[in-house]
Structure formats: C-alpha cells, structure tokens
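OP here, attaching both records as promised.
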Amino acid sequence: MIEHTLSKAAVQAVEELAQFIDSNPLNRKSISTLFPQYYSNRNIIYAAFETIKGRSVKEYRTRKLMEAAANMLTGREQTMQQIAYKCGYRGPKAGSNFTRAFRKVMGKSPKHWAKDMKRQRT
C-alpha cells in the first residue's frame, strides 16, 4: 500500500488536515495560516494528501465546502446569495462562481439541487 512509503508524520499531518477540513468546511483561511508547522514541508504534505485522500487539498476543501452548501440548500432557511456568501464567494460574480463550483462538485446547479431535495421531501 502506498501509505506505507509515507512517513508517519506525513500521514498524521494529512489526517489532521482532513479532520480540520471535515469539521470546518466554511473556514476559508489558508492551510499555511492554519497549520504553520507544516509550511516548510507543504509540498510533501500536499503530495501525501493527494496520495492518501485521492484528491488535492484544494479539491478536497471545495468538495467539503459544496457539501456544506448542499446541506444549507436542503434546509432552505437562507437565500442562494446568503449561502454563496457564507461559502466565501464575494464580489460581482459571486453567484455565478458559486453556481459553477457547486455544479462541478455536485453535478447540478444549486437551484436544481434545492428543487430535487424539495421534491424528495414531499
């Protein structure tokens, strides 16, 4: 198994990063800010992350962020713009950038996702 060729420290770092991302999907601070102890080995940790998790840190974070957005859409107490803002999308193209990222990860637009979830509840 590939994990056996990685150092225990790299595997531990990957697990810590993944656990943080899983628990805090809306946190958009950089990994180097959140985990400065890994900065000097950042490339090694990122490569180990991709080996262990099967996707880059960025892809993993984006997936977790869009899963959190999908949960917010399911509840539907918030508007699409509010959800996009909570997910860190700002500026004039925030809505379209959020929609594009959501569709790429979840396979459909936020609007269609919300409609499908509403249909499933009824």
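Record two, same layout:
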Amino acid sequence: MSQKQRSWLWKNRKQRTRLNAVTIRRYRSGHCGQLQVPGRPLGTIKLDWTTNTDAIYKKGQSRLFFLRRLRSFNVCRTMLQMFYHSVVSSVIFYSVVCWGSRLKTVDTKRLNKLIRRAGSVLGVELESVVEVSERRMLRKLLSIMDNVCHPLHATLTSCQSSFSLQTTKELH
C-alpha cells in the first residue's frame, strides 16, 4: 500500500465504536483460563438471533434446492440422507448450542419448516431444532463437566442437582 493510500485511509477513517470484547486466556501448564467481559456486566448483554436465523434459512433453502435436484436424478435414499446430513443440516445446526434456546418462536417455526421440507424430500421424519439443540447442549455440558480446566467446570459442578445427575447418567 502506498503512502498516499495510507494517508487517505487515515484521514477518512470512521469513528470506531468501543467493543466489549470477550477475552479468553488459554490455560497453560495446568492453570485454568478466565472469561472476562470488560466494561459491561454479563447479565446486561441481550442477544437477538433473528438476522442469524434469516441467513441460516436462506442458506438452508439453497441447499434444499440441491437436495431436490439430487432426488430428481433418482439418487438412492442413503446418498440423499448423507447429502442432507453433510450439507443441509450442517448449515442449519451450525452453533445451535449458542443460539438454540434463545430463538424466537417465529424463527424456530421457520427452521422447523425447512427441516420438515427436507424430511419430505428424504421420506423420513427428521429431528426438530429444539431436539437437536437440547441433545447438543447436554453433550456440551457433559464435556465441560469432564474437563477440569474448563472455566465453567467449577460453576457447573457446584450447581449440580439430582436431576442433572440422572440426565448425565442416562447419556453415558
């Protein structure tokens, strides 16, 4: 980049907003990491996943188009299911652990509608967003509870109840 371009960028830069970055320090030599949100209490952060859900829905529709095209070429059912699980559901359920329980009812219905359409193309009944998110959240909680150096390990082990112990025993 030339000096002229750098000076133009410097003069015309936009005002930067202060971001509340989450910094995670990795553990080294057996020390556990810390999770910090500088400048803002953690309880005041509100997350809205509507724009994320819109993008996922559009991507899912385009992948569903390819699934329908494959079916029109008389591809066998097992190949269609492999395509669904590797291409379509990977888009729909990407990071469902983060946003699955915070979805609005309208967004959940839209994604479930997409899943039902894929199920009708495949000829099978597929799991809904809620079922997949609950299953993956439980798996994630179990992995946190098994990892002693995870920053949330102490918090989760102190909050265990008899119900959570029964749930974890059922999953093992």
